[in-house]
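One-letter codes give the sequence; the fold follows as C-alpha cells. An example follows:
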Amino acid sequence: MDAGASRSGSGERGMVCCGRLRDYTASAHNGEVSGCHGSQRTDGCMNTVKFEAPYLGIDIGGTGIKAGLVTADGNIILERTVRTPIEEGRAGMMREISRLAADLMEASAGSVEGIGIGSAGLIDPDSGEVIYATDNLPGWTGLSLASSVSRATGLPVWADNDVHTAALGEVWMGAARDYHSFALVALGTGVGGAIVRNGQISHGFGGRSGEIGHMILEQDGLLCNCGQRGCMEQYVSGSALNRIARVIEPDWDSRRLIREAQASESRALQAIDQFAARLAAGLISIYHLIGPQSIVIGGGLVNSADVWWSRLEHALRRKTDMPIRIEPAGLGNRAGIIGAAYMVKCKLR
C-alpha cells in the first residue's frame, strides 16, 4: 500500500503538503516537486519524491498523533496524522509513533537531524520522561518518551508538554513572533497553559509551570479531577460548556450551546457572558502574576470565538484598567508540530 494512502484499520490520513493531500512516493518530473516550501528531490533510480528538512515534529494527543517534516525556516513540507490507539495502551501508541517517525525519515532523504515531541501530560523537559498523564493516554505515566523514540530512530529526541510546544510554535511562526514575553492559554476539553520569557518556555520546578487551568477561580467551587475545588478548568473549558449546556437543556452540549448563542437565544447568551466573565477573571490574574506583553488564546474553543471574543474584551474592560492585550493563536492545530521542531532547532544550535 502507498505510504500516503488511507488505512482503515489505523484511521490514518494521507500526507499533507501545503494543505493538499500528497502521496510522498508519487512520481516527479526532472527531480522537482512544485508548489511546496523547502527542498524536495527525487531518487535517481526509484523516481521517488524526497523532502529535505532538518526537523521532525510530533504532537501526541488523546485522539490523534500528528507528525511533520519541518524546514529550517519553519514550514511543514510533509505531514501525517494517525488515530491514537489508546485501547492498545503504551505499546500501541509507541508503535504508531515509531512508524510515523520511520516513514517521515525515509521520505526526508536522511536530512532529519533531530526529533521534537509534544505530548499531553506532565513531561520532564530535561529527561523527556512522562511524569504524569491522565487516562486519556493510558500507561503513559512513567514512560521515558524521549529516550524510547531515540532508541527506535537513532536520532536525538527532546520532549515537552504539548501546550509548551504549541507556545514555541507561536513564538517561531505564529501570533507571538514579535513578543519576548507572553502567556498561552489553551481552551480545549480542559485548560492548558504556557509561560514564555525571552522566547523560551518557563518550566518551573519539575516542569509544572503554566498549569493555568488549575488556578483557583471559585473558592470551594466545583471539584476538579486534580483534587482541588474551583479550578479555572471547571468554568472555561469545553467540558465546562458541556455541563453548562445540559443545565439549560438536558439534550444540549457545548456545540448546541454555541449555535444557540449565535442565534441570540437568551439563556445561551447569558451562559456565554458568564463564561467570558470567568475567563476574564483568570486572564487578569495571569497578567498580574507574570506581566506578559500579550496573552495568546488557542485551543479548540477559539473556533467559536465569534460568539464570545467581544464579550471577553468587554468583561476585561469592565473588570480592570490594566492594558491587557489578548489575541488568538495563529497556527491552529499545526502549532504543536512546528513548536516541537523549533525545540529541536534551539537544542541543536
About this structure: Confidence is low (pLDDT under 50) at residues 1-48. Residues 178-329 form a domain with the Nucleotidyltransferase; domain 5 fold (CATH 3.30.420.40). The chain has nine helices and 16 strands. The CA atoms of residues 195 and 249 lie 37 Å apart.
